[in-house]
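Q: Two folds, back to back.
A: First:
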Amino acid sequence: MTASQAPQPIQFANTHGPAPLAAVTGASGFIGQHLVRLLISRGWSVRLLLRSEPSIDEWRSRSAQVVAGSLADASALAQLVDGAGVVIHVAGLIKAADRSEFFKINRDGTRALAEAVQRVAPTAHFLHVSSLAAREPLLSDYAASKRAGEDAARAMLGERATVLRPPAVYGPGDRETLVFFQLARQRLVPLLGSASARAAMIHVDDLVRLIERLATVAPRGQVLTAADARPEGYRWDEVLGAAARAVGNERARLVRAPQTLLRAVALVGDAGRRLGVANMLNSQKLRELRHEDWSVSASELAKVPDWAPQFDLDTGFADAVAWYRARSWL
């Protein structure tokens, strides 16, 4: 590849005018809750797809519209997207008992939503918040299902669909990365991956600000990736070292976790899946965690006017830990 053929960072033109109606799925999840709060605070009209009445008082008090239903409910999806200027699809399954369960939500649910947009909201921008795992669909059923969802949306909507792949997302309210801070309180802190592995990360507040900015730009059919100011990623010792500092464990000793121990823990999760239990840690998830390259290249990194990450790893982890402790999670 010559220098003139090398892919260039993707840029977006700025837009102006009043924000349109945003239809949002996954509003009750970790990222979704932060996103909805931001959209409301910035004056968006918001319509949410929820299985039940909202439990968050802030949404009720600010009159967010609610459509009762799921991604399997065609009439609810049509009601959700009707009149929307942008449809932000955040809903997805991150753990499941089997492959078909992942695909039912992450592929088939995404396709159903894209079909509703095509049928009912033919001018809406479809913004699909996927996962960096979709870049490596052979690693796990989860990764494969996220890639399949991306492909379904892009096949249905073409240039009207934008895919955003976040890396590891952390911050207040996240239960999945809480385990890193729990591990970081120990005298011996295990490193799950190799010394050469790299993983990009992003604080949830930075991510939702990026999503909001992407929602205002014209769709171009692109697949973009999010990251903080270190898109090249962090080593495992940097991640767990920052977690140890955030919890005040200055004497933490970082050690490489024995492979036999990791495999044993993963096998317990595998056994649970065979019994129909959706465990977060299993052999497939371990393959994702131990993948060598979760960095983000300049060519795939989303670059948007008026957005830049505000949190580095130390300030972001400190913010998350303060939230966990205030609620006795840590």
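A: Second:
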Amino acid sequence: MARLNQQWFKSSFSGGNDSNCVEVRFINDFAHVRNSTMADSPVLVFNRGEWDAFELGVFNGEFSMPA
């Protein structure tokens, strides 16, 4: 059965009221990502494989900002 969670959420590392955050929600096998400060902003949608690849990249430090 597909996972369904229509609530938007931010990482606990986002700093609370920080204006530079994104939100994510999962609907079935898709991750929806948007700007947390603009609820009507465009939403990026990723399928499960794309989201898994992104998470692995983050875990492996592939998206770290250059020094």
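Q: And?
A: The first strand starts at residue 4 and ends at 9.
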